[in-house]
Records
---
Amino acid sequence: MHILHGFRGICLVAATLAFQTIDAHAACEPDKVATKYPKLAGRMITVGQDGESPPFSFRDPKNFDTLIGLDADMARSVFACIGVPVEFKTGNWSGLIPATMAGQIDVMWDTLLYTPERAKRLDFISYMNSATGALVAKGNPKNIRSLDDLCGLRANANLGTTQEAILREAERKCQVAGKPEVEVITSTDMPSGLRLLENGRADAVLTNRFLADRRAAGSMSVEVAFSLVTDAIIAAGTAKGNDDLAKAIQDGIGELRQNGSLKTIYERYKVDYMLTVDPAILTR
Amino acid sequence: MAPEIAEADSITDPIWAVLGYTTSSFLLTGALIAIEIAAIALLGGTLLGLLIATMRLSLLAPIRAIAWFYVWLFRGTPLVLQLVFLYDALPSVGIRLSSFTTAVIGFTLNEAAFAAEIIRGGILSVDKRQSIAAAALGMSNRLTLRRIILPQAMRAILPALANQTVSLVKGTAIASVIFVNELTFRAHQIVGQNFEFFTVFGAAGLIYLVMTSVVSIVQAGLERRFGADRERRPLLDRFRTARNEGRPATLRPVAKEATGFGLPARSADKSKPFVVCRSVRKSYGRREILRGVDLTVGRGEVVVVMGPSGSGKSTLLRLINHLEELNGGEITVDGAFVGYERIGDRLMPQHDLARARAEARIGMVFQHFALFEHFTALENIVEAPVQVHGMKPAAARSRAEELLRSVGLLGHADHLPSRLSGGQQQRVAIARALAIEPRLMLFDEPTSALDPELVGEVLAAIRKLARGGMTMIVVTHEVSFARHVADRIVFMDEGVIVEEGTPADVLDQPKQERTRRFLSKVEELPADQPADDAINPLSLVKVDR
């Protein structure tokens, strides 16, 4: 896992893509899709999400047939701005990357982190910095205040996520310090990780900070012990070589930032708007 | 819509919450998707599985190998990988399937591999003698599979297939990796939104239970349908049979036109050869069973074949009606080969062997009766005339009733073989063999599997046939029967005919030491009572003497 070291990579990519600056004067012109993005004209764009990661992608409690959340709403707004219809496909998070590579879905837009490794298989359009939160049992019985306190305890993260990499790194640090190791338990989805915590099978769950905040809010059983801002970047992913699509998404996010509607979406889901970044296309 | 879930603080609240989710259209839509995938996969997979199962039982090695490979591949790899492969790898060769289509195809292909083994197991569970009996009646392999083997195999197939179906319904949950939003996935989605995993998963479990209960109910119904001990005939038919039994027996000769069986006019001159075996040889692997047998049976002649077990008697019978293939020599029945063509110097088996057997009209009766276990006595008799010879069911039925009456079993017409005694079963088997209007009857130790007190009734039926002028070859150890019924006795040992002649010659003055030794070991029971039944089965078969 190179995620913690990803910053260097991003600098490199940012340097190579510096010429691809966003057109500051881009505006939402859905009628001009055929001239601006000829390859998108007449297409239906399929957005892949897992539908169980609040506040990014989850089911509308009032109507389970509808997906809502920061990523869902942003995807809808961006493609409305571009001028192409969109449909959502929901599946297990682990199936989203292969499906995007195979072209079964056009965009994976679901708290996907950019890594150079993943960029060999997908192109990325970055839009915010990631942050990690640690959920613990109410009252924080193990007195966990930082990653260092996890030595000798059991901690959970979703398989293949940035949080898993953080835990592996913490495990290594405990080892170096001669302390008992972190016992890392991986799960395939966030709710099952939380059940580990609620059943006392894990002492801490590391997940996206906003996911953690949302879960802790009003909860009788869990609270946020600490949070970290990492240098990891959250991005939308497309199959390699879809230049028109990547450019359109980049333009769309840029326009939503400009006209303030992106901020509204962030506020709607209580996610820190300060974490957003200028959208960039990362292909390496 | 999700019901409003209040903070649960009593026992009943969570139960109501679970029940509330069971009526959620969001979850029920997922259940419907699961049912659709499972239903199509079950239907397609079972049909494909049947094909693969029959391929695995094929005589041709390459076909067996293909079927084996298919089962090996699909049973040996995880379904989830198969689905991801179909969904995410095929687009690279230009095949882009939708999620639902991928799931249906993936589950069908996988189901077929498992169904194939279940069906093959069922087919193998059916006694081999059932298909031999069917072949002797001239039934083709396909007809035998459809009419005889599969209905009996169902008893073994159904419980396993129901298991597989339940797994299939639940297993559709895997399809969420390829974006099929079925029940389990939708339950996860709701939990991801509100974290009420207990109630939501509880509700999903209940919905699965309802779906799998339907499978259990259908299974129970089908098991009753294919069970061994059902009485299936409509009540009305039973009334009719009872009425017929009350009537005095009046027999009408069966006209050729009425039955569709053409019977060539035959003389009863026993000096005219009817069955001719020349230098007949047969081996199983390296073991030689018959080592050059020459035997001629005259028209209307009754030949009893005796000899120690392993002497090749039964094999000779099976070569005459081509249940087994000759390794050398030739056999003609009424001047024609049964299922062989002469090409140059060699005899080649014909392609449509079943048809050749049917046209030869050679009736055969087996040591172990080999009645079709799932058919009543009457259905056993009707089967070949209707299915093989295209006789009208009504005509075949009334004729079968007459045959049953002639062997004294009309009252048992609706009984399954399992409810009949051994002697009764063998008499039904004789009636079944007679129903194809045979020109030749082969009896393969017809009384060897019977309790002593049941032997007499079967021999009486055979004796009646002999008196009626039927050409017969009877393999038996019944010395008294041979003495009274046979025109000629053939004694075989170690694959050759050792001695032959009239009963008096062979039984009383055997020339060969081997014959003497054998006869000294076989007990001669008192002669059977001569049968004085009013009805002679041969009057139905119409043989010109």
Note: The two ends of chain B are 87 Å apart (CA to CA).
---
Amino acid sequence: MSRNIPIIRLYDNLLVSIQTELSDKLVHELKDGICEEIQRHDPKGLILEVSGVDILDSYIARSIRDISQVVRLMGVKAVIVGLDPSMAITLVEMGLTLTAMETALTIETALDMLRREYFYEEEDEEDGQDAVDDDELIDSILEEIS
Amino acid sequence: MSETETASRQETLIVGILREYMEDAVARGIFRYGLKRCQGGDLEERGGRVSQSLLQNLNKGIDIFLRDESMRSSCKEKLADLGRGGHSGKDRKREPAEAEARSIHLKTEDDIVVARNEARAIAEGMGFTRTEQIKIATSVSEMARNVIRYVGEGAISFEPLAGGTRGIKIICIDHGHGIPNLSDVLSGQYRSKTGLGLGILGCRKIMDEFDIETGSSGTLITAVKYRN
């Protein structure tokens, strides 16, 4: 059962669409593969599309949560996309809580989420720049007055 | 899949089988002969199903062209399999073995995938809803994973409940050293570092009946899910 899951670049993000039965080995390989691609391409976000996953049991669910935490440490935000309704019901009834994990129903929504996040970050940086300019301006005025 | 596609797939399958035993041209000839002779016109009109009359006519051609007795019977057997399956070999596999009991030997991580797919196919065949199928398959995955991770070898079986009750019974067995802290696991005190800490407990929540016996000679889990 040797298959691999493609990791695709999409704008500033990586898109991983899992369309196969996930064996434990594959989950492990995927985690490594994603980390390598992140290091290589320095993306802003990671979209994990799971609509094709056959079953999310506790180990696979945990692995997906782990992936999102690992990439967060590398400065990348992960969004889980396309969770099957029956799978969502099962996970909740089993007592699973996916805290600290961003989710979206579709890839479009996920892209919007990531773009918005990135946009705000850029805006914040600009604000910071403005603040410095303001300080300089005030300083120069103060100098003139004195 | 459209009827035309099914028909041409059937043709490919039939000619493919014949070609294992004879020249390409002969195989096509027998196929065309059989098709012409059987009632109801071509494959497309009959929705691509391999009918008994087509099989009979194919067999006539095989009798003429295949001299070796054992090759003849093995070729006929393969074609008869197509007829029994109705559609393609792949579709046939998806239909569970008429909800018979199935047992799967657990030895490698890949067996976990095999077990949960099998469980799901049986549940689907029994008319369980999609969510119920997923719950059953998830439980099977949890149980099988525990066997592989903590013991290394075991077996899991699925069987439809006998009598009028509609439901599926899952039995998972291993001959490991048992689960030492079962009461902690079931009360939610213990959390495994590798899972989300809800494997067995989660199974119990999504199944209708859940019974676990564990001791130094092994663990036996019996779980039942009823059809709503």
Note: Chain A has four helices and five strands.
